[in-house]
Amino acid sequence: MSVSASAENSRSGLLPIVVLASGRGSNLQALIDARDAGALPVEICGVLSDKPKCQALQRARDAGIPTFALSARDYADRASFDQALFARIAEFSPRLIVLAGFMRILDPTVVAAFAGRMINIHPSLLPKYPGLHTHQRALDAGDEKHGSSVHIVTPTLDAGPVIAQAQITIQADDNAETLAARLLPLEHRLLCACIALIARDRIQLAADDWCYDGQHLQRPLQLGADGELSSR
Ligand code: GAR
């Protein structure tokens, strides 16, 4: 998509976004469905992946969204891969980059170049359990609550300011699979609700900071049973 097309999107009130995904793409699908239902004022300009055969890319193609994939094995190191990926992203002129199940650590240089314009959804109540195996780690720790977080991407993995969270209660008979399965639909609502507030300029992002209706909050917004985010 050309820069001028993205400028047109801005004029129409739609937030131009690019989504990065590595696998199943159910979060991407939730964004597509919410957009199609008129609940998410975004233009999904492109979906990019490090896994050329992943389901997320097929979902994007099925929705008529431009896709782009590159394989890490074609690049000498992380920095050169990320530079190629983010050069392609820049061609879409997104105002927001959404990591929706993108399973690569990013080079700090590219993160810095898009500071305050990139969010990630992570399946834990950050700052608990950055990295992998979050469901099992919550179970092993005997936690009562588990959940998912949307945060600003900063150079340190899963450590950026947390904007919003969805919580579930861990049940006695839960295992990692049941926890993940119960959390996933909430992740979808969390990501959609968060991006909707950004698109409507209710959430303002900065490099290492965010505001809700112009105010700094003491804790992340919380997803309610109604699917809305609130500061209570
Ligand atoms: C989601 O659970 C998301 O929170 C997680 O990957 C899954 C993607 O599912 N992200 C991470 O673990 C990032 N560290 P999807 O491909 O079906 O959207």
Task: Characterise the protein shown here.
With about 230 residues, this protein is α/β, with parallel strands linked by helices. It has one domain: 3-Layer(aba) Sandwich (Rossmann fold), CATH 3.40.50. Helices cover about 35% and strands about 25% of the residues. The chain is built from seven helices and eleven strands. It has helices spanning about 5-10, 25-35, 55-60, 80-90, 110-115, 135-140, 175-200; strands at about 15-20, 40-50, 65-70, 95-100, 120, 145-150, 160-170, 205, 210, 220-225, 230. It has a nine-stranded mixed sheet with strand order 3-2-1-4-5-6-7-10-11, sandwiched between helices. Helix 3 links the parallel strand 2 (about 40-50) and strand 3. Helix 2 (about 25-35) packs parallel to helix 7 (about 175-200) and helix 6 (about 135-140) packs across helix 7 (about 175-200). The chain is globular and about 45 Å long. Mean pLDDT is about 95; it is low at about 1-10. Glycinamide ribonucleotide binds next to helix 2 and strand 5. The site of glycinamide ribonucleotide has 14 residues, from helix 2 and strand 5.
